[in-house]
Amino acid sequence: MDLIRILLIEDDIVDQLAFKRHVEREKLPYRFDAVKSLAEAKRIIAAETLDVIVSDYNLGDGTAIDACEISKGVPLIIITGAGNEEIAIKALKSGAYDYIIKDPERNYLKVLPLTVQKAANSCRADRQMKMLLHAIMHISDSVYITNVDGTIRFANASFCRTYQYTSEEILGRPSSIIGDDHADGEYLHHRKDGAEFFVSLSKSIIRDSDGDVNAVVTVARDITEHKRAEEALRSSEEKYRKFFDEDLAGAFVCTPDGKLVSCNPSFARIFGFDSADEALSYNFIALFPKSRQFTEIKDLLRLNGKLEHHEIQLRRRDGSPVFVIQNIIGKMDASGRLIEIRGYIFDNTRHKLLEEQLRQAQKMESIGTLAGGIAHDFNNILGIILGHVHILYKGDPAMVQKANSIDSISRAVQRGAKLVKQILTFARRNEVVFESININALVEELKKMLAETFPKMIEFSLKLDPALPTTVADANQVHQALLNLCVNARDAMPNGGKLLMETELVRGIFLRERYPDAHEHLYACLRVQDTGEGMPPDVLNRMFEPFFTTKDIGRGTGLGLAVVYGVIKSHKGFVEVSSQIGQGTTFTMYFPIREAEKEDMKTMENDLAGESAAGGTILVVEDEPMLLELVQGLLEAQGYKVLSAVDGLEAVELYARHKDEIGLVLTDLGLPKLDGWEVFQRMKEINPKAKVIIASGYVDPALRQNLLNAGARDLVQKPYMPQEILTRVRQTIEEDAAVMN
After folding, report:
1. Which of 300, 353, 279 has its CA nearest to residue 323?
2. Using alpha carbons only, how large is the chain's radius of gyration in Å?
3. What is the pLDDT of residues 73-99, one digit of tens each?
4. Which residues of 263-273 are buried (b: 16+ CB within 10 A; e: fewer)?
5. CA 101 to CA 81: how far, in whole Å?
6. pTM over 0.85
7. Which CATH number fits domain 354-592: 3.40.50.960, 3.30.870.10, 1.10.10.10, 3.30.565.10?
């Protein structure tokens, strides 16, 4: 590549040396001269062929504005340490190519190379074009010479061919017969037959020895095709601009640092701006929830050159979320460096919200489907508890029998609590939470639940790959997709059959033959296979459509498989279906394996026997008398002094009287008179350092986060085991003691 020929006009020797060191250190492809004055610059400009002139604004014998006058068309970049908008406008109006401010917080020398490269490219292109036009003009253009009075005294052969006159016919006649020719410019001329065409005129004056005008030489170039092309280009640009402005997709152009260069009204509308001009005042990175997301997009553009159908959640100007699909192209320079980002953004928010509504509606349908089985399971649990309580009350049972009954009651309670947790997790409407999950464990858990609720004629079997690693996914969505497939399998086997759930590890390279977007190295394969009725081809082709169903009215809404497809898509996975009439159906889902960050998990103490007694005063707030009595007895047995309250109002009054004595508060969330949230807030008003543990059978995720943000020390899920509550209390007290020490 030819070196860029630069003239540096800089009267500060320190800045000259800094420029030279930067060029040498960065190995920039420059060959340059450095001068201190406009006089020296003028000499070099006259003698050398330059690509770019870089000039400081303030010079000893003038300013960079003066340098524009002697630049002879060479692009001039102005560098100023006192830059402002007025100087910038003045410089650009004077013909400067660009200007750069000497910002002390930003090394202007790092910004300069890109501007120099663009200017040099522009200069060389203009120079080549001028040479080409010059050659064409002297070879093929029409030339005629007129006297001072405008009569034609000479015309070359090209003129005669173009205007369709012979030399004899045109000589001595006024030039007005062919059209206006008063000065340089573009005019509409006429041929001999009256046909019109466009010409570009260039005039030179011939003077006699006395300096008087003798004749005028005119070079006429036929630009008819050029004018037509200009008109076509203007029309095309107008159509493009209209398309750009009226397109429903948000079109944008930005720099690699996020500066928006251009955008259309749809882009502004998608992100909540009042106009495209207002959007251009924002940095594109500010529309990403996390700046690293924009960095990841740039990395992908450098790797692949473009992104197609890239789904991402961004945010509007007011901070509200907006779900979009992006098609983006990265523009690279000759060295492969990303210099521009162009893209189209489609607002997918409405589709996402509808998808979530479908998913939530299908959850309710599934819960209704399973309600009978769940009720049956709960009745079994209660039967176990009541039966063993009867054994314990009946006389004095043997120690072995007593221990067995206690163990059975404990396991039944845990089983019931787990079932409630599953129902709440499945039914509540949460944001998608991607976290590390064990798919094998999720399948085993669902199998236990379905075995209790599905008809006994259905035989379950599992085939789980022990080498399947954990992956980052939304456990609730995967659980829901798997449940939907199992419910469909059950409905396809009204007389019973076999239902197989299988997992295996699959390498992405094998999937790419069928799915080019399978970029991950490993995928978790989750398969559901039944021996049911099967589906005909026409049903297979429509099965993922929302509300499409072959079930009778009242037996399904047709949302199940649409939800499955949405879950797979949100995880950037894939789904396959095979089915034959009378031989069953197999659904195969592929989830990408992504490793999660390892988290340190606190282990719960299982046995407190033998530990030294604790001390301090604890306020227990519980409206269930038997539970209050149980917790109070447990804490007192460990050496704590316990104050108790049965409603929120009594709890606040007790805390106000004994705030200096009470070291910890354990309160239920659902209380009469004042609920646990109000109790917590009032206690914090009384004592901002109040330590409070909150217990509840169910805490909404948003309220849970609010409690933790407000300073709650811990949240305990009911029902809890005695050892668990003692451990939470002891850990909270010991953590505070460690901080104080």
Report:
1. 353
2. 41
3. 899 998 887 666 677 778 888 888 888
4. bbbbbbbbbbb
5. 6
6. no
7. 3.30.565.10
Closest CA to 137 of 52, 187, 70, 199: 199
**SS3 at position 141:** coil
Decide yes or no: CATH 3.40.50.2300 for domain 617-740: yes
Give tens-digit pLDDT for 357-404. 666 665 555 555 555 555 545 655 665 666 666 666 665 656 666 677
Long-range contacts at 144-152 (CB < 8 A, ≥ 24 apart): 144/170, 144/175, 144/218, 144/220, 145/206, 145/215, 145/216, 145/217, 145/218, 146/175, 146/181, 146/215, 146/216, 146/218, 147/215, 148/213, 148/214, 148/215, 148/216, 150/174, 150/175, 150/176, 151/175
Give the separation between CA 391 and CA 498, rounded to whole angstroms.
39
CB 220 within 8 A of CB 199: yes
Tally the residues of the chain.
Answer: 741
Q: Which residues contact 218 (CB under 8 A, 6 or more apart)?
A: 143, 144, 145, 146, 175, 181, 201, 202, 203
CA neighbor of 340 nearest in space, from 387, 306, 375: 306
| Cα-to-chain-centroid distance, residue 49 | 48
Q: Which of 200, 195, 192 is closest to 227 using CA atoms?
A: 200
| Domain 4-137 belongs in CATH node 1.20.58.1970 | no
Residue ranges of the domains in the chain? 4-137, 141-228, 247-347, 354-592, 617-740
Quick one: which of 467, 481, 480 has its CA closest to 438?
Answer: 467
Domain 247-347: assigned CATH number: 3.30.450.20
Beta-carbon contacts of residue 309 (< 8 Å; ≥ 6 apart): 325, 327
Q: Which of 255, 257, 252 is nearest to 267 (CA)?
A: 252
Tokens for 439, please give them.
């798919």
In the CATH scheme, what is the code of domain 141-228? 3.30.450.20
Q: DSSP of 445-476, one letter per residue? A: HHHHHHHHHS-TTEEEEEE--TTPPPEEE-HH
User: What residue type is 126 in one-letter code?
Assistant: D
Residue 718 DSSP SS3: coil
Q: What angle do CA 347, 352, 353 make, to 5 degrees?
A: 110
Name which of 212, 152, 140, 211 is nearest 178 in CA terms: 152
Match 């020929």 to its residue by tokens: 5
Q: What is the pLDDT of residues 208-267, one digit of tens each?
A: 645 677 778 888 888 888 888 777 777 666 665 655 555 568 889 999 999 999 888 889
Burial class, 707, CB count within 10 angstroms (exposed 0-12 / middle 13-18 / buried 19+): buried
d(Cα 326, Cα 313) in Å, to the nearest integer?
10
